[in-house]
Amino acid sequence: MMLTNLKQLMFSLKMKRKKRERNNILLHGSNDICVELNRILWRKRHRIFSLVSFVSGCLILLLFAVSVFSPPPAANLLFLPPHYLARKEIAAVESNAVFQVPTIGGDLDRGLWSTSRSKVYYGCSNASNKFQTADMKTYPNRYLLISTSGGLNQQRTGIVDSVVAAYILNATLVVPRLDQRSYWKDASGFAEIFNVDRFISSLSRDVKIIKELPLKEGKPWIPRRMAVPRKCNERCYQTRVLPVLTKKQAIELRKFDYRLSNRLETDLQKLRCRVNYHALTFTDPILEMGKLLVERMRMKAKHFIALHLRFEPDMLAFTGCYYGGGDKERRELGKIRRRWKALHASNPEKMRRQGRCPLTPEEIGLMLRALGFGSDVHIYVASGEIYGGEETLAPLKALFPNFHSKETIATEAELAPFSSFSSRMAALDYIVCDESDVFVSNNNGNMVRMIAGRRRYFGHKPTIRPNAKKLYKLFMARNNMTWEEFATKVQAFQVGFMGAPKELKPGRGEFHENPTSCICETKGTETIQKETQEEDHENDNNGRDTAEVNDEQDPIEEDLDWIEDDYSDNIKDLPDTDSNVLTKQEQPEVEELFSD
């Protein structure tokens, strides 16, 4: 029994020992497995860490490259017009208002290349049944001669008005004598610029016109020379001029420009239009060269702008305007200004506030871009010497790289017959400006007024006159606003200055600029009436809104040009005598300098 128990005890101990050894083997195996698992996990963690580090490094390099080579967020707006931007984007930029000019314009389909309602209006200048013809009213041995003054377009006003003056006086008109001694120094005669035969024949029913004054008793006839006041009306001619003409039979009215009132009876106004828009044409060589220039512009683009840019040193000196050129500008222009002793002391700030300073080339470019014309638009520039040269023109050329002139689109040989004569060169510019899709100016001189009136008569083609009085303040403050704000205000200020029908009240401005007596409205077409009813209402509202602006902007009757302001103030109405002596106040250069 005892032995049996001992065996069982030994067997039990043996089993426990085997069990312990088995557990030790299992524990050792588990430790080996754990160690191996740890090694595997460490390798995977190392690979993941390496991958993450690589990806992070790549992202850092990518972000660095983007920050270095990409433009700042606001710069991207340079290439988008304001109306393409989302409101949220605009709001984000407005927090740091920056004046950034877009390279493209707006929607040109909204009518910038044409004038709304132009098809409703047309030029009409036929005489009424009450208008007496030349053969019924012309007195024998009554001859009127006139001598014009100034540049081509100022002379044109004198030629037009001389026909009406001859009609009022029942006289035969001798072909006008052009000014050959003025600032412009052009020796061309009437027949070298205008088609004299057409001029005579086209007006044969209205006024008798001859080329030369006939002999008197076999001797040259010396006419009595005299002057008439500016804006002389029909009664003025009958009381001041007619008695002298009746007595002397031949008189010459000197310095004949703007010597006829804007306010005449309708038939006399229509006679003005027949002369200006039908009878007075350029010679064939000038017309052919002008047509060639227009064709070459059409080859470059379907539509083009013609810009009459006056920024000559003499003109800037006379106006007394200042454009930020510092002492150099003041010294240079001041020296030129001292040539005119009768000029009052200049007040540049006042002139600018009153809108009497021509816009700079850059300001014209900004105005056009704000109105919707992009950098792809082609511009023909009619200008003389630009103060500051290429440096002054650079901002305009940057805005509109397609920049042309007669010198760039024609060869020197083609221009040779005209280049020595300022009036003939001006006539070429006149033709291109008249035929352009849009005509723009930075001034309100004679050429601008003559072309504006012609474009109204022949279909109200877009003619943009800067509202300089309003734009001045806007240009001064442009760096404190966004482009969208600037463009919106420009478009608002230019309402009433774009060449649309009924922009100007009848009788406002020069008749040559606003020939309302010669503009008729199509009637009897129900479709047109319906189409324009709403536009007429809108135009009436705009007219009321802009009437005050136009009244402020348009020069008063006596303010014929920058030059005329001084001239009118200093020249007294001369008596009806034959005095050939210029008074001290009559300085030829002053009256002619800006008479383009």
TrEMBL record:
Segments of this protein annotated with the region Disordered: 531-596
GO biological process: fucose metabolic process
Family membership noted in the UniProt record: Belongs to the glycosyltransferase GT106 family.
Keyword Transmembrane annotated: yes
Keywords noted in UniProt: Carbohydrate metabolism, Fucose metabolism, Glycosyltransferase, Membrane, Transferase, Transmembrane, Transmembrane helix
Stretches with biased composition (Acidic residues): 548-568
The organism's place on the tree of life at top rank: Eukaryota
Protein name (Swiss-Prot/TrEMBL): O-fucosyltransferase family protein
Gene Ontology molecular function: glycosyltransferase activity
Gene assigned in the entry: LOC107939383
Segments traversing the membrane: 48-69
PANTHER family xrefs: O-FUCOSYLTRANSFERASE 16, PROTEIN ROOT HAIR SPECIFIC 17
InterPro entries in the cross-refs: FucosylTrfase_pln, GDP-Fuc_O-FucTrfase
